[in-house]
Amino acid sequence: MSCLRPRSFSSPVPYHPLKEFKDHLGSGTLSPDHAHQLFDRLLRQRVPVPQRALTGLLAALARAPPSTACPDGPALAIALFGPMAQACRSWATAPNVYTYSILIDCCHRAGRPEIGPASFGRLIKTGVTANVVTFISLFKCLCDIERTEEALDVLLHTMPDDRPNAISYSVVLKSFCDNRRSKRAFELLQLMAKKGANHSPNVFSYNMVIDGFLKEGEMSKALDVFHEMIQLGIMPDVVTYNCIIDAHCKARAMDRAEGVLCQMVDNGVRPNAVTYNCLIHGYSISGQLEEVIRLLEEMRTQGIIHDNFTCSSVMDYFCKNGRIKEAAEFFYSMAEKGHKPNVFSYAILLNAYAAEGSLVDMSDLYEQMVRDGVVPDHHVYTIMIDAYAKCGKMDVAMLFFKDMLQQGLNPSEVTYLAVISAFCRMGRMDDAMDKFSEMIDTGVPHGTNVYRCMI
């Protein structure tokens, strides 16, 4: 019965190099040089390796997470395809549609999209019939190199009419929207609707175009698409509603945002944390604290957990309005409820303490952040350095500056300006000049503020 067993990627016999290849890849110890050596041994064996096993090898490389030995699996898969295709010419099994699909997808993943169309052309010349996965990989490559119109032409005129699916269209739609050509994407949506059947756009298609128009600042056009999808019987989902609500909130049109929220609930779509975050942010920038409190309580009663964005929005509102004590109370209440603040939440409160000159509170909060395992980022270090520098405590400020460098974080112009300004105020011009020269030598972009300070 063993002879009837399919020989796959994991077959240990007689393909020892294949098993060794798999073991090293799985353990993250497969280097490109070693991969080429094993692959060469594999192709020189007396018994040809089935195409299915070789295709499985490429697929494993395409999915392999980056490792120290092999930082780019898809690029290595591309490099191995050439010898594989050459060797297969003398075998009964040549690269099939699955092999080419993986290869073209690797071109996209490895950041070599220009190779994708050539690989697709090679597939056509060999007489292999491309499937929908092959076409989707080709579209990704064409869109990566800003040949979206060409991808659209292939989609509409080269791809067999029964092949396109929602994903095929989505790749092209997304490319148009990402390149601020949402109007062109909307035209494609309308064409899809006319074709009907398998070509019909779905809610994800409409969401992309709505989001594209909103990112371009075309609110009225986004609303037109929103109303059109409803008229066509395509029901918006939570993502659709969140996009529209967020746009109204950013425009401080809170009445309209609440109207969309009511429509959302009436249509049986349950708001989530993102929905409430949009509304909380909108009311915060509009200065309507009572509405923020109402929404927080509404989230609690509906069992929707506050996330870091919620906490940051509320704290930022309190701090900007000089209500640091309330911001701190909210911060600690969230922590007591099991919600772990992130570095952004800490930075908001640290910055508020620094602006107020409360160095003791700032220092205590920083120590708590470190104890909680939250790693300080560039912004946090700059806050600490600037706060101590303004108070003339340059020894402490420089300790943070040194620690920042040890953590692999490069100071920005703002960081250097805080230190240089403090040295200048203290009359320590030699130290100021040293930091100024260091900033220039390390290539930190700088403007007139630093020169003005030195002068």
Can you tell me about this structure?
This protein is globular. It has a domain at 376-455: Alpha Horseshoe (Serine Threonine Protein Phosphatase 5, Tetratricopeptide repeat). It has 455 residues and is mainly α. The chain is built from 25 helices and no strands.
Largest sheet: none
Structural class: mainly alpha
User: Which CATH class of the domain at 376-455?
Assistant: Mainly Alpha
Described by its quaternary structure, the protein is single chain
Low-confidence stretches: 1-13
Mean pLDDT value: 87
Rg of Cα set? 29 Å
- Specify the overall morphology: globular
The CATH topology of the domain at 376-455 comes to Serine Threonine Protein Phosphatase 5, Tetratricopeptide repeat
Strand content: under 5%
Q: Which percent bin holds the helix content?
A: 55-70%
CATH superfamily of the domain at 376-455: Tetratricopeptide repeat domain
Helix and strand sequence: HHHHHHHHHHHHHHHHHHHHHHHHH
Distance between the termini: 88 Å
Supply the number of helical segments. Answer: 25
CATH architecture group name of the domain at 376-455 = Alpha Horseshoe
How many E-type strands? 0
